[in-house]
Amino acid sequence: MEKPFYQEGLHFECKRCSFCCGHSPGYVYLSKRDLLTLCKYFDCNIEDFVKKYCRWAGYYEGKTVLALFEKKNYDCILWNNGCTAYPARPVQCSTYPFWTWMIEDQDTWNECAKDCPGMNSGKLWPKEKILADSTAYQNNTPITREEVLQLMEEEKGKYVESRHAHA
Prior knowledge:
The protein has helices at 32-42, 46-53, 91-94, 106-113, 127-139, 145-166, and strands spanning 10-12, 54-58, 64-68, 119-125.
């Protein structure tokens, strides 16, 4: 098997330019893990979080999945001179720029680096970290509308149960 072009690692250091957090249309898809982590971080229930921060987006195979809103200027709803949910940010955000398609080959990596001043500069990340992030990104399946609605129903059921337990 051929060794990846990043066998010796890749340089990346965030320059806080926010390019990956906005400036052009895009989607930050949320998985179940992302949704629950963000709800806990913001101390709110799923229904309130979805209403305030999310939108529905078309996805592969005709699925409708959860994604974060973007502002009129295309910045992420969580961006305000930095990520307002940095410790709880979605896997899509925390694994950037080591996304599976971005590390497929050196040409793709270098093409993406034209838009990101942090790529090919700063800290050298080892192959193991790059692969781990790529795998996490690839396995982070967006949560569907049906799954979100089911979680909301389960959450409402737990709320009703806890009210009865304290009555």
